[in-house]
């Protein structure tokens, strides 16, 4: 029998096992942090988990004139919003890594000031991970006085890596009305 | 004999009395009981928040609480029920029973055990206290996704307190889990090989491994969220190169194993109760053991089925869908083993058996709706609707809570030396079983019809079913009141339960029934030998 206060062999064994398990838990904590760079590498390598296109940077490779991509632009308006949206070019033919620009004309046909937000939708979805929007009216909410028009640009670029089978990409904007006096919405919630 | 006496003296050398004894105890049984009482109190508090939610939803135009407060009630109901009620209840049963079942005198690290328990109080204080800070409690759901949980959209300190509380609760869980693992690995009675370990102990071994592997990842996710809020880092902020999807992956890497953490010990409990009450040995012990491990391992491979609508790729959806379906195989093994154990038995319909049978019924329904949710198109259709609410309440109320009722009725005599009233127990079971199905079954329909969860009001056509659901809540409330009353009433009676009131050891030997009820501080006068 060990004297009181002296660790016995089983005590030591338990302590060692406990320490190993604590180290395992610390390792799992580190694993959470390692996932920050791992997640990025994993996404880039496998193209799993689609990234938001707003943050997609434009690549700077040489323009590939051999491959033509037809980009179709359309705009629709949600019910009740008296604004029309017309692209200057409804179809643009571009090359990969070529910076391109299109113009959209907005017209408020009503007697009231309107606020709205343009929400874009890209088809096919796999193209969304390669379409870099450099400047877009969809980045901020818009306000228009009664019976006014304005023309706003969209500057974009199709990056390298687009699926070789894709030759046509559709970019559609939907205008959603916002309450006139409301502050910008804070996301989430009710 | 003198050597033996010295061993007993080492178990709990300090002796206090009354409240001081409970505050300073390192006895696993007292800590286990305190966990259970803590869980019961929090079950009442978390349940009362559910009552307020149901009252508010009785009529879409009542607006008894503001939408902001409704979100807070919903968030705190889930947080309290998951972290302070279910997890602590199973920790309580584990603390009390695991050393007894393996023939040990205490946990491997008794002081660490006490520390893990007392850590619950600052965490609970932060959670409840957050209702009273400016901006109120956290309202972003128990998952607390960014960007809603970032400083920009949840500016109040309620969210900070929630994150800190979750970190503290995580530390408590990890310490408890390490203690369980070392206890079972190193302190089993002589002769108790791994194939003789009781199934409740096995369930806790798997649960403890899951806790050690999953909870630190949650803590890491919380540290990063706190850092984004306080230090303006960009782990989850796209503007700074971060990604909110990463949070979802980290959260659910913990969150889905957490579901099994909250149900596996219940599986273990039922695996003791059914053989004892059906007077038959458990069917397929080794199969049950392997199934526990399979659930534990596959449970780590399914997390992104919570993210089918979050923008993950088609390949990822297919993988996580298949893995989620695969988990039904070991779960099915357990269900069939329990049914086979009942088959041909001489069944005693005690309250614990009624709850065990009720658990099988409701848990199977929860599992079936889980299978539906593993199907991607269906999941997308009912995502964020009451179908999901129905599913996880069938698993956690119909599964976890029912097993806890069953376990309480079965082991209460061991813990206190007193029997709970079977007559009242029958009322508790039927009120709870009817109330639970009354409340949660119609939610499947509401979900398929498109009623969104997490919203304080709803479209008028959903009102009749919502009123019906709210009327079922008092049944569960009454069951809870009767259950609490029967505990208080039993504690006022003399202790006369005997060592093995259910004659469990005549069917299958489990060491807790070989000592007195309640057991002495040292558990066993002589460490039993298992052959």
Q: What can you see in these coordinates?
A:
The complex is a heterodimer of chains A (190) and B (531). Chain A is an alpha+beta fold. Chain A is built from 2 helices and 9 strands. A 5-stranded mixed sheet of chain A has the order 3-1-9-5-7. A 4-stranded antiparallel sheet of chain A has the order 2-4-8-6, with no helix packed on it. The radius of gyration of chain A is 27 Å and the shape is elongated. By secondary structure, chain B is mainly alpha-helical. Helices cover 67% and strands 0% of the residues of chain B. Chain B contains 18 helices and no strands. In chain B, α3 runs antiparallel to α4, α7 packs antiparallel against α8 and α8 runs parallel beside α11. The longest helix of chain B is centred in the N-terminal third of the chain and has 35 residues. Chain B is globular and about 65 Å long. Chain B starts with a helix and ends in a 40-residue tail after the last helix. The N terminus of chain B is likely disordered. Chains A and B meet through α1 of A and α1, α7, α8 and α9 of B.
Largest sheet of chain A: 5 strands, mixed
Biggest sheet, spatial arrangement of strands of chain A: 3-1-9-5-7
Mean pLDDT of chain A: 82
- Structural class estimated from helices and strands of chain A: alpha+beta
Q: Percent of residues of chain B in helical segments?
A: 55-70%
Low-confidence spans of chain A: 49-54, 182-190
Count of helical segments of chain B? 18
Rg measurement of chain B, Å: 23 Å
* Largest interchain contact: A-B, 36 and 51 residues
Could you tell me the strand content of chain A as a percent range?
35-45%
Tell me the strand percentage band of chain B: under 5%
What is the helix tally of chain A?
2
Q: Portion of residues in helices of chain A? A: 10-25%
Query: Given the C-alpha coordinates, what overall shape of chain A results?
Result: elongated
Shape of chain B: globular
Order of helices and strands of chain B: HHHHHHHHHHHHHHHHHH
Report the end-to-end length of chain A measured between terminal Cα atoms: 67 Å
| Assembly form of the protein | heterodimer
DSSP strand count of chain B: 0
Main sheet specs of chain B: none
């Amino acid at each position: 029998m060990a004297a009181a206060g002296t660790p016995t062999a089983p005590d030591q064994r338990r302590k060692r096992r406990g320490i190993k398990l604590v180290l395992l838990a610390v390792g799992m904590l580190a694993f959470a942090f390692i996932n920050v760079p791992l997640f990025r590498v994993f996404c880039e390598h496998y193209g799993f988990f689609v990234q938001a296109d707003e943050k997609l940077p434009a690549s700077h490779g040489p323009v590939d004139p051999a491959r033509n991509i037809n980009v179709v632009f359309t705009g629709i308006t949600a019910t009740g919003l008296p604004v029309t949206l017309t692209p200057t070019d409804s179809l643009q033919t571009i090359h990969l890594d070529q910076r391109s620009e299109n113009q959209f004309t907005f017209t408020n046909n009503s007697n009231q000031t309107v606020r709205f937000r343009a929400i874009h939708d890209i088809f096919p979805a796999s193209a969304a991970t390669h379409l870099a929007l450099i400047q877009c009216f969809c980045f901020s909410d818009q306000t228009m006085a009664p019976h006014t028009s304005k023309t706003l640009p969209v500057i974009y670029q199709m990056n390298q890596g687009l699926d070789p089978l894709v030759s046509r990409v559709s970019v559609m904007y939907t205008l959603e009305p916002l309450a006139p006096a409301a502050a910008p919405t804070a996301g989430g919630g009710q | 004999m003198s050597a033996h006496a010295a061993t007993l003296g080492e178990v709990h050398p300090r002796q206090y009395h009354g409240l001081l004894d409970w505050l300073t105890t390192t006895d696993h049984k007292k800590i286990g009981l305190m966990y259970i009482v803590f869980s019961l109190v929090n079950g009442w508090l978390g349940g009362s928040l559910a009552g307020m939610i149901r009252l508010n939803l009785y009529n879409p135009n009542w607006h008894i609480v503001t939408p902001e407060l409704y979100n807070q009630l919903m968030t705190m109901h889930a947080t309290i029920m998951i972290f302070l009620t279910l997890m602590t209840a199973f920790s309580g049963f584990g603390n009390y029973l695991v050393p007894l079942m393996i023939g040990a005198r205490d946990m491997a690290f008794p002081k660490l055990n006490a520390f893990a328990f007392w850590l619950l109080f600052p965490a609970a204080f932060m959670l409840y206290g957050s209702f009273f800070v400016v901006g109120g409690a956290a309202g972003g759901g128990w998952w607390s996704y960014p960007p809603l949980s970032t400083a920009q959209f949840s500016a109040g300190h309620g969210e900070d307190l929630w994150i800190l509380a979750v970190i503290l609760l995580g530390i408590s869980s990890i310490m408890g889990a390490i203690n369980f693992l070392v206890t079972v690995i190193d302190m089993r009675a002589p002769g108790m090989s791994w194939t003789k370990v009781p199934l409740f102990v096995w369930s806790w071994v798997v649960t403890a491994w899951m806790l050690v592997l999953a909870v630190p990842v949650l803590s890491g996710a919380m540290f990063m969220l706190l850092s984004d809020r306080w230090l303006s880092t960009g782990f989850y902020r796209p503007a700074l190169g971060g990604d909110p999807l990463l949070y979802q992956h980290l959260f659910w890497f913990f969150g889905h194993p957490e579901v099994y953490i909250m149900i596996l010990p219940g599986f273990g409990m039922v695996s003791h109760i059914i053989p004892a009450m059906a007077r038959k040995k458990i069917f397929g012990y080794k199969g049950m053991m392997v199934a526990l491990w399979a659930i534990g391992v596959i449970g780590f491979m399914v997390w992104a089925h919570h993210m089918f609508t979050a923008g993950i790729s088609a390949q990822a959806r297919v993988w996580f869908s298949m893995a989620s379906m695969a988990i039904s195989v070991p779960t099915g093994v357990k269900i069939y083993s329990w049914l086979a154990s009942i088959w041909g038995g001489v069944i005693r319909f005690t309250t614990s058996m009624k709850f065990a049978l009720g658990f099988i019924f409701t848990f199977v329904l929860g599992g079936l709706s889980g299978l539906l949710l593993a199907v991607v198109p269906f999941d997308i259709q009912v995502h964020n609707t009451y179908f999901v609410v129905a599913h996880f309440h069938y698993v956690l109320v119909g599964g976890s809570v029912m097993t806890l009722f069953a376990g309480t009725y079965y082991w209460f005599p061991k813990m206190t030396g007193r029997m709970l009233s079977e007559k009242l127990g029958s009322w508790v079971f039927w009120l709870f079983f009817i109330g639970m199905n009354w409340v949660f079954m119609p939610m499947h329909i509401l979900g398929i019809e498109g009623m969104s969860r997490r919203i304080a009001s709803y479209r008028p056509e959903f009102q009749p079913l919502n009123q019906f659901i709210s009327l079922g809540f008092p049944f569960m409330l009454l069951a809870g009141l009767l259950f609490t009353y029967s505990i208080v009433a039993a504690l006022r009676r003399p202790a006369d339960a005997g060592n093995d009131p259910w004659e469990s050891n005549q069917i299958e030997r489990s060491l807790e029934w070989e000592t007195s009820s309640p057991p002495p501080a040292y558990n066993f006068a002589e460490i039993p030998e298992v052959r």
